[in-house]
Amino acid sequence: MSNLMLIGTFIRPLRMAMKRDLKEKELSRLDENIIKILASIAIKNKKRICYPRIITIQNLLWKYYQIKRERRCIAYHFRILEAKGYLTIRPRCRRNKDGQYKGKSSLYIICNKAIKFLNGIVKQSLIWITKMPKIFKQSFKGLQLETLDFAKKQINLEWQEIINKKKKPYRA
User: Fold this and answer.
1) In degrees rounded to 5, what are phi and psi of residue 27?
2) Which CATH number fits domain 18-164: 3.90.1150.10, 2.10.70.10, 3.40.640.10, 1.10.10.10?
3) How far is Cα 165 from Cα 115, in angstroms, rounded to an integer?
4) pTM, whole model, 2 decimals?
């Protein structure tokens, strides 16, 4: 057996163990925020897929959540989300005119587990707003229960519309 084949037999179980370890990790606040950002980009495009660069995610994390992380850290959290079943990640590349391959941003497919997670966040927010003390309700005077129910139905309809679209196989 060649040395390369021996190395391959050791690497495969190591990768499986690493994936198992990633599955056991709990979702952090950064993971939740990454899911929210990817979902907002996907909803804006009215699809379940999006392909932002990691630098774009990094900038959006800083802009909306004041979280500053390195690109490698964000890539690590993407691997956690993929191992847990929230995302499917497909690397993409293209060929230049001179024949060399150039990497492109990865394709992120939002799975049903992430959609259920986001619906749970919306539901908890609506419950929190409806059960607020009177002090906080004064700042939300114009917001009525009918408006909240309408907002919840609208969000569910948007996701159902995206989910029920004719699914095409995604190719890397």
Assistant:
1) -70, 130
2) 1.10.10.10
3) 15
4) 0.70
What secondary structure, in 3-state letters, does 139-156 show? Answer: HCCCCCHHHHHHHHHHHH
Residues 158-170: tens digit of each pLDDT: 767 766 665 555 5
Dihedral angle computed from the Cα positions of residues 40, 41, 46 and 47, in that order, rounded to the nearest 10 degrees = -110
Confidence band (pLDDT; 50, 70, 90) for 66? very high
Mean pLDDT computed over 26-39? 91
Task: From 23, 167, 154, select the one nearest 81 (Cα to Cα).
Answer: 23
What is the SS3 assignment for 109? strand
Domain ranges of the chain: 18-164
Three-class secondary structure of residue 147 per DSSP: helix
Structure tokens at 154: 């609208």
